[in-house]
Amino acid sequence: MTAAALSDLRILDLSNHVAGPFCTKLFADFGADVIKVEAPGEGDTARHIGPFPNGAFDFETSCLFLYLNTNKRSITLDIESPTGQSLVRELVAQCDIVVETFDVGVMQEMGLGFGRLEVLRPGLILTSITPFGQSGPWRGYQSTDLIAHAASGLSAVNRVAGGKPLREPGYQTDYQGGAVAFLATMSAVCYRDREGVGQHVDIAIQEAAATMIAPEITRVAYAGRSPGMRLGFLPCQDGYVTLNVRHDDAWRQLWVFLGHPEGAEDPRFRTIRDRRARQAEMEAHLLPYLEKFTMQELFDGLQPHRILVGMALDMPHLIDNVHLHARDFFAQAEHPVAGPLLFPGAPFKMSATPWSLRQPAPLLGEHNEDIYIGLLGHRHEELTEWQAAHII
Prior knowledge:
The chain is α/β, with parallel strands linked by helices. The protein folds into 2 domains: about 10-215 and about 330-390, Rossmann fold (3-Layer(aba) Sandwich); about 235-310, formyl-coa transferase, domain 3 (2-Layer Sandwich). The protein contains 18 helices and 11 strands. The chain has helices at about 20-30, 65-70, 80-90, 105-110, 115-120, 145-150, 155, 170-195, 205-210, 215-225, 250-260, 270-275, 280-290, 295-300, 315-320, 320-325, 370-375, 380-390; strands at about 10-15, 35-40, 70-75, 95-100, 125-130, 200-205, 235, 240-245, 310, 330-335, 340-345. Strands 3-2-1-4-5-6 form a 6-stranded parallel sheet, sandwiched between helices. A 3-stranded antiparallel sheet has the order 7-8-9, covered by helices on one side. The chain has a two-stranded antiparallel sheet with strand order 10-11. Helix 1 crosses helix 8. It starts with 9 loop residues before the first strand and ends with a helix.
């Protein structure tokens, strides 16, 4: 059987919530051994965020946690205790990468700063994910996904003309921060493998999110003016679509498809410059005709004419999407408490070392014996003492 792409890496996951766990999920799903450290009795904060099956709270069945922590091993540990910090050092000595999401300065206060950790494991990579990074006047500020949307500029550009700034649902800035953290950490791994040197990777979610609107930022810097507001989608028979009619011949083909070729001859919209100048009028001109077609009919019918169509798929449509299923985008897992689960699968394809969902997210502390006894060599009696003292 072919080894997974990252099966030679072991990662100590000291992160919580979304950004850090998404970073380590990408490692785990491509084969890395990810040891997730959770607070005794409570676990990752994501365990306490729904939805939960049938609406009944159970920190073993959080949909958010179950998605973010596939293929990982979970141990419990109070890392604020002296024994906990000693065990973290033992774990670091067995790992290639540490990912953490503590407030700036907390790792140093616990004696777990990069300078000390790299002595334990030469070539270690420490990836720190925080709202605003390890330096700068905002380095100690708290944040949420909503605040990151605002601080990155995403909210300002993510609105239709005349509307208020908006936040996209689903922790988008945190997921972007996690994805950037994965990319940056893998870059550090490549450098370490070539030069033998580890490093501290500093991820600011604000910066990671701001890269999503790079065209708007560069336009303002270059042209000295703010970007225009985004335009909305146009209603059709069963939803909404967006059209990109790139040239005049495509404009004529659009109206032939709609069954009214005379619509292309309206003098207000004869050229692409006219259509851009009268965007709202042009949309009103199209609406009565688009409403006779479904999203799929427009999508399939106009693509051959080189007219770009975007279907605004809602979640049921997305889950049932024939193209995603043909590419095996969705993955299924059987969790011992939550039962059968459907998740988005690989974010990219690799022919020789494919992504795989080997096991569902772990139960809280499920792998305490595997790690503390099997990996670190401690005795059962020590685990019993640590459990009684609420250290694990």
